Amino acid sequence: MNFDFNAVIQAIPYLFGTGMTFTLTLTLAAASMGLVLGTLLAVMRLSPYRLVSVPAGIYVNTLRSIPLLLVIFWFYFLMPYIGAWVTGASRPINIGAYKSAIITFTLFEAAYFCEIMRAGIQSVSRGQMAAGLAIGLTYRQAMQSIILPQAVRNMLPSLVTRVIILFQDTSLVYVLSLTDFLGAGAKIGQRDGRLVELYLFVALVYWVICFSASRVVKFLERRTRVAR
Amino acid sequence: MIEFNNVSKWYGEFQVLDNCTTHVSKGEVVVVCGPSGSGKSTLIKTVNALEPFEKGTVWVNGISVGDAKTDLPKLRARAGMVFQHFELFPHLSVTENLCMGQIKVLKRNPEEAKAKAHALLDRVGLLAHKDKHPGMLSGGQQQRVAIARALSMDPMVMLFDEPTSALDPEMVNEVLDVMSDLAREGMTMMVVTHEMGFARRVADRVIFMDGGKIIEDCATSEFFDNADARSERTRLFLSKILQH
Predict the structure, then answer these.
(1) Rg (Cα) of chain B, in Å, rounded?
(2) Which of A128, A129, A133, A135 to mutate to test the interface with B (most CBs of B within 10 A)?
(3) How far is CA A221 from CA A137, A147, A213, B63, B117, in A?
(4) Which residues make Cβ contacts (< 8 Å) with residue B43, sequence separation at least 6?
(5) Which of residues 120-139 of B touch A (CB under 8 A)?
(6) Where does the ABC transporter domain start and stop, copy by copy (chain B) (predicted)?
(7) Does residue A127 sit at the B interface (CB-CB below 8 Å)?
(8) Residue A140 belongs to domain spanning
(9) Separation between Cα atoms, residue B128 and residue B108, nearest integer Å
(10) Is-contact B59 B37, C-beta < 8 A?
C-alpha cells in the first residue's frame, strides 16, 4: 500500500481553518453555556421545593437516558416547529444546522454538568452555607460567592473530563451535514482518494489533544488533593 | 437585648428545645453548657435564625426573629457567629474572608473594608497572616480569624458555638483570651462551651441545659459556688467535668 501524506499537508489549512475552528467553537460554546445552565439545574435539583427540584430532575434524567445522536436529530427536526409554536408564527422557523447544533449540545451537556455540579455543591460542607448566611449574605449570594467557587474547584477534574468527551462528541454533527474537524478530513479524503491518510491524521490530532487534556486533569486532581 | 419566650423546636418527633425562656441583657456574657444533644447549640442558633423554631418567640433588639416579615440577612449581619469548625471560606485569603460581608452586606467600599479587616487582624494578633489562605493557619489562628470576621460586621451580639472544642489543647487559650478581651470591652455574648474555667472567670450568668430544657439559669458565682441549690442533674454534670 502506498501512503501519500502530501494530501494531508495540503489539506492542513482547510482541516484546521474550517474543521477545527468549527469543532472548537462548538465545544467552547456548548461547554460554557452548558456549564451555566447545568449549574442552574444543579441548584434547582438541590432546592427543598419539589416544584423546582422535580422538573430539573426529570430534565436531567431524560437527557441522560437518550443517545446524543437522537437528541441532535430530534432538535434539528423539531426545533423549527417549537420555534413556530413559541413565537406564534404560522410556518416552521428555520434556525439552521449550525445554531441547532450549538443549542442541542448546550442542552445535552447541561444535564451532565448538572450532575457534576450537584456532586460539587454537596462536597462543600454544610457549615459553609451557615457561615455565609451568618454574616448576612442571602442564600443566593452565599451560593454564588461561597459555595459555587468551591464546588467548581473541587469538580474541575470531572468538568474537564466531561469537556474532553464533548470535544470528541462534536464529530456527530456530520449527521447535520456540518463540517467539523473529522468531517473536513473525510471530505478531503474522499475528494483525493486518500481516506486512510486523512483518517490516520485526524485520529492523531484527536489523540494529541485529548491525551494532553487528560494530563491536565491528572494535574488538577493532584492539586485539588493538596489544597484540601 | 435578646429575649427567648417559650421557644420549642422539634426535629420530626424529637423535641430539641422545650419551652426555653431566658434573656440576655446588653453587655452581658452568658455561657450555655450542658451534655451533647441538650439543645444548647440549637438555642443560640435561633438568635440568628440559622435554626428555625416552631413555637414561642425570640426577640433581638426589638426584632422578632420568627416573624416572616423580618429581614433575616439584615438581622444576621448584626449578630456575629463563631462556629465549632471555624467555617472560614477556604477559597479566599484571610483578608478577603473579613471583607466579604462588609462589602456584600454592609456595602462598604473595598478600601474601607480592607482597612477595617487589617485593624481587626492586628487586634487578634494575626496581621502577619493577612494574605494567607485559611488552610495555611493553625486551628487556633483560624478561629481567631473567624472571630475577627464576625467582628468585621460591627455586631451588637456575638454568638459562640463551642469555639474551642475542635482545637488542640494548646491552642484553646489563645482563642479564650480573645474572647475574654471582647467580654471586657462590653460585648454582649452568648457562648456555648465546656470551658468551665472560662465560664467562671468571664461569664455573668450560666445557663445549664438538658434534654432541650433550661435547667439552670443563674449568676455565675451562684452556679459554681452554691452547689446545694443546684438540681441533681446539674451537680452530676459539674462533678463529671470539674474533676479534671
Answers:
(1) 18
(2) A135
(3) 31, 19, 12, 48, 33
(4) B4, B7, B17, B20, B32, B209
(5) 135
(6) 2-236
(7) yes
(8) 5-227
(9) 23
(10) no
**Chain A CB contacts of B149 below 8 Å:** 135
- pTM of structure: 0.85
Q: Does B60 touch chain A (CB under 8 A)?
A: no
The answer to whether residue B91 neighbours chain A at the CB level (below 8 Å) is yes
Q: What is the dihedral of CA A159, A163, A165, A171, to 10 degrees?
A: 160
Q: Which residues lie closer than 8 Å to B89 by C-beta, 6 or more apart?
A: A128, A131, A132, A146, A150, B96, B97, B100, B134
Can you spell out the DSSP letters for B36-63?
Answer: TTSSHHHHHHHHTTSS--SEEEEEETTE
Pairing of strands B2-11, B29-33: unpaired
Per-residue pLDDT of chain A (228 residues; tens, 9 = 90+): 677 788 888 889 999 999 999 999 999 999 999 999 999 999 999 998 999 999 999 999 999 999 999 999 888 988 888 888 888 888 888 888 899 999 999 999 999 999 999 999 999 999 999 999 999 999 999 999 999 999 998 999 999 999 999 999 999 999 898 999 999 999 999 998 889 999 999 999 999 999 999 999 999 888 776 555
CA A197 to chain centre: 29
- Whether A137 sits inside 8 A of B50 (CB atoms) is no
A–B: how many Cβ contacts below 8 A? 65
B91, B96, B156, B190: which to substitute to probe chain A, counting the most A Cβ within 10 Å?
Answer: B91
- CA A9, CA A18: separation in Å to the nearest integer? 15
User: Is the minimum CB–CB distance between A6 and chain B shorter than 8 Å?
Assistant: no
Sequence-distant (≥ 6) Cβ neighbours of residue B229 within 8 angstroms: B222
Q: Identify any residues that bridge with B160 across adjacent strands, giving them in sequence order.
A: B82, B191
| Number of independent structural domains in chain A | 1
Q: How many Å apart are CA A219 and CA A41, to the nearest integer? A: 28
The CATH number of the domain where A192 resides is what? 1.10.3720.10
Q: Does B107 touch chain A (CB under 8 A)?
A: no
CB B104 to CB A141 under 8 A?
Answer: yes
Residue B76, helix vs strand vs coil: helix
